[in-house]
């Protein structure tokens, strides 16, 4: 609704600027480029409202029925800086997991750090993300929807959020710095 109102106001302004008495090429292109810029800014303003960190519904630990008891941790973080010093308007979603020992139907012990896999993607809106599972043999832009307390994938699989977290599914040694 906000974008529609902005476009309407721009059109009213463009109509006044293009009145026959003021019509020339410079006026025309000035109004058209100004309108396009305002439209892009309005769209980016909506994208900037996307939530990151704990405020994002995606952030949290999950149960995956296809891998019972295995680690599924999702984080939403701000987009990284590009080379020109700008950021994408769309936050990054990071998924870390472990599928268990080969041949096991469920995870019964904790993984070590080397056994974890990580995939990422981008948040489209506060209820949808595109996740790149190609490094695990899956699709590049898999649509993930947050609905009814979980993440739902196109094949019907639903990861259910575990509010209390799943600390016992993470590796015991999560230290990042070592000193002698």
Provide a compact summary of the structure:
This protein is of the alpha+beta class. The protein has 2 helices and 8 strands, in the order ααββββββββ.
β-strand percent reads: 15-25%
How confident is the prediction overall: mean pLDDT? 81
Number of continuous helical runs: 2
- Give the CA-based shape: globular
Q: Uncertain runs with pLDDT below 50, 5 residues or more?
A: 1-15, 35-43
Order of helices and strands: HHEEEEEEEE
Largest sheet descriptor: 8 strands, antiparallel, barrel
Structural class: alpha+beta
Task: Walk me through the structure.
The chain has 180 residues and is of the alpha+beta class. It has two helices and eight strands; from the N terminus they run ααββββββββ. An eight-stranded antiparallel β-barrel has the order 1-2-3-4-5-6-7-8. A hairpin with a 5-residue loop joins strand 7 (150-152) and strand 8 (158-162). 14% of the residues are buried. Mean pLDDT is 81; it is low at 1-15 and 35-43.
């Amino acid at each position: 609704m906000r974008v529609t109102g902005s476009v309407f106001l721009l059109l009213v302004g463009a109509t006044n600027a293009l009145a026959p008495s003021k019509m020339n090429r410079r006026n025309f292109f000035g109004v058209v480029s100004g309108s396009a810029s305002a439209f892009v800014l309005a769209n980016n303003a909506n994208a900037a409202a996307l939530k990151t960190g704990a405020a994002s519904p995606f952030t949290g630990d999950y149960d995956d029925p296809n891998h019972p008891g295995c680690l599924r941790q999702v984080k939403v973080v701000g987009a990284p800086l590009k080379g020109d010093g700008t950021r994408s308007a769309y936050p990054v979603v990071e998924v870390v997991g472990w599928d268990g020992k080969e041949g096991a139907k469920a995870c019964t012990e904790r993984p070590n750090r080397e056994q974890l896999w990580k995939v990422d993607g981008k948040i489209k809106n506060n209820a949808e993300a595109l996740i790149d599972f190609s490094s695990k043999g899956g699709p590049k832009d898999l649509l993930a929807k947050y609905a009814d307390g979980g993440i739902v994938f196109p094949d019907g699989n639903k990861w259910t959020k575990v509010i209390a977290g799943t600390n016992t599914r993470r590796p015991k040694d999560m230290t990042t710095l070592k000193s002698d």
